[in-house]
Amino acid sequence: MECIFCNIVEGKSEAEVIFEDDNLIAFLDIQPINYGHTLVVTKKHYDNFLTVPSEELTHIINATQFIAGAVKRSVNADGFNVITNNGNSAGQTVYHFHFHIIPRFNADFNFKPRFKNYATGGMKEYADSIRSIVSKYKDIYNG
Ligand code: 5GP
Ligand code: ZN
Fold first, then answer.
1. Among 25, 43, 47, 92, which residue carries the largest CB count within 10 Å?
2. CATH of the domain at 82
3. Which domain holds residue 45?
4. 90-107, pLDDT tens digit by residue?
């Protein structure tokens, strides 16, 4: 299937590239939440966060830290988000793994965030469920 980020990696589509090495490429998002909004993209095609091999993930996280510092300094942001959307329900629109670096300004969050509240005992139930899956699959963790 046609992948816009693979096309950018292969030089078939244009992008404002700000950093590149053997494993990743970082370029400006075409529809920024704030100016300077940057995407850090693996050169190899992985559908999402869960399918990136561990070593490559370590590399891209280190690069994202470096690039985020440059983006923040460049636009004189007060802060920034590093996020990855996974699946349609989470807002993923390009199914090629990437981190977003979104510069943030104090005025961006002048509204009250909406949170859910757990029912009594609910927090432990959710934690128990996640803990049991973590325990079942702990062999695949190589941190
Ligand atoms: P996602 O929604 O998958 O988390 O993020 C995909 C991002 O890629 C979106 O923020 C979107 O604006 C950006 N994007 C989509 N197509 C292009 C493109 O052709 N060039 C660039 N630079 N960004 C793109
Ligand atoms: Zn791709």
1. 25
2. 3.30.428.10
3. 4-113
4. 999 999 999 999 999 998
